[in-house]
Design goal:
alpha+beta; VC0467-like; nine-stranded mixed beta sheet; 18% helix
Length: 187
């Protein structure tokens, strides 16, 4: 994995991961890993990768229960529009160098992609969003640690352990912070 960094606030972060700083205690984003799908002067949006709901898309509604998408795992994508379903697909890049990410695809296209070998799909309820300048301000306050996407991202545990693993891969100090107990008296 490449070394994560605190972001230059002028960098475009689409396609990057945001790792919640270990000091964040607010439950909405505590110990989250967010995949940033888009980032520009208007703002940013992404989905939380490590909040599985323990359900499948077919359990969400009758529309998906009889669909080939019924078994797609469902995740809490973020606090914005929590009833909106966002489908994301990862597949190996055709030249075998990394992978392609398709974000927010329609169900018909998702069904077509399911037929391809090596495709990983997840459904998210809601998303994380920032208005113009909001994410940059949070980065200046060290709310987030920016990390590049890693090829084996979907092979890691899709829960809080993903956050610990990604932070721990940066260096020993981040690993120590990622593994500290929530209650300091347990040290």
């Amino acid at each position: 994995m490449s070394t994560a960094r605190h972001s230059d606030s002028s960098a475009v972060l689409g396609g990057s991961l945001l790792l919640a700083h270990p000091s964040i205690r607010e439950e909405t984003f505590k110990h989250t890993v967010i995949l940033i799908a888009s980032h520009d002067a208007e703002g940013a949006m992404g989905v939380v990768l490590n909040r599985p709901l323990g359900k499948r898309l077919g359990e969400l509604s009758a529309e998906f229960s009889m669909s080939p998408l019924a078994e797609v795992p469902l995740f809490e994508g973020g606090p914005v529009q929590p009833a909106q379903v966002i489908l994301c697909v990862w597949r190996p890049h055709p030249d075998h160098d990394g992978f392609q990410l398709m974000f927010g695809i329609d169900p018909q296209r998702a069904e077509e992609l399911m037929q391809e070998e090596g495709v990983h799909m997840r459904a998210f309820l809601g998303y994380a969003g920032w208005t113009s300048g909001q994410l940059e301000d949070e980065l200046r306050r060290d709310t987030w640690v920016v990390s590049p996407l890693v090829a084996d991202l979907l092979e890691d545990s899709p829960d809080e352990q993903l956050w610990r693993d990604l932070l721990g891969q940066i260096d020993d100090e981040w690993k120590l912070l990622a593994n500290e107990p929530d209650d300091p008296s347990l040290n």
